Amino acid sequence: MSESRVIEVVAAVIEHEGKILACRRRPEKAAGGRWEFPGGKLEKGETHSEALVREIREELSTSIEVTAPLRTDDTVVGESTIRLICLRARLLGEPPTQSLDHDELRWVRRSDLPDLDWAAPDLPAVTELAAGSPTR
């Protein structure tokens, strides 16, 4: 059996006014129509935090501060393994209203997170957040 390629991706769990930001992927993207936490792939030489700050600025045109790690999970998707590094973050800029990669942004109560159709890599974090303590 061949070993799959590991792709490291960072994702922001942003809580604002008691709700967490969920983003629905555009239909033409991989996992189109599914919800995820915003973020993206690391570039060479970036730390997880640096990559996430950059991705949120590029995708959502706002600024964040990474406050703490949440969890890291590996999910096999096709021929690859997605290593999703979820980091807690807080807004430094205005709440985003649009995204380059998503067709809908929604602020969701923690208890309602499981009601959305999440992309597989995000599910472990969704489960923990729905059951757990507030983000910092």
- Mind summarizing the main beta sheet? 7 strands, mixed
Nearest-angstrom radius of gyration?
A: 14 Å
The ordered string of helix (H) and strand (E) elements is EEEEHEEEH
**Structural class of the secondary elements?**
alpha+beta
Which stretches are low in confidence, meaning pLDDT under 50 for 5 or more residues running? Answer: none
Q: In the CATH scheme, what's the topology name?
A: Nucleoside Triphosphate Pyrophosphohydrolase
Strand content: 35-45%
Distance linking N and C termini: 42 Å
Mean pLDDT: 93
Helix share, percent: 10-25%
Please identify, by name, the CATH architecture. Answer: Alpha-Beta Complex
CATH superfamily membership, which one? Nucleoside Triphosphate Pyrophosphohydrolase
Annotation, overall tally of beta strands: 7
Number of helices: 2
Q: Could you list some keywords that capture this structure?
A:
single chain; alpha+beta; 7 strands; Nucleoside Triphosphate Pyrophosphohydrolase; 136 residues
Question: Can you describe this structure?
Answer:
With 136 residues, this protein is of the alpha+beta class. It has a single domain (5-131), classed as Alpha-Beta Complex (Nucleoside Triphosphate Pyrophosphohydrolase). The chain is built from two helices and seven strands; from the N terminus they run ββββαβββα. The protein has helices at residues 48-60, 123-131, and strands at 5-16, 19-25, 35-36, 39-41, 64-77, 80-91, 102-109. Strands 1, 2, 3, 4, 5, 6 and 7 form a seven-stranded mixed beta sheet that branches. The model has no long low-confidence stretch (mean pLDDT 93).
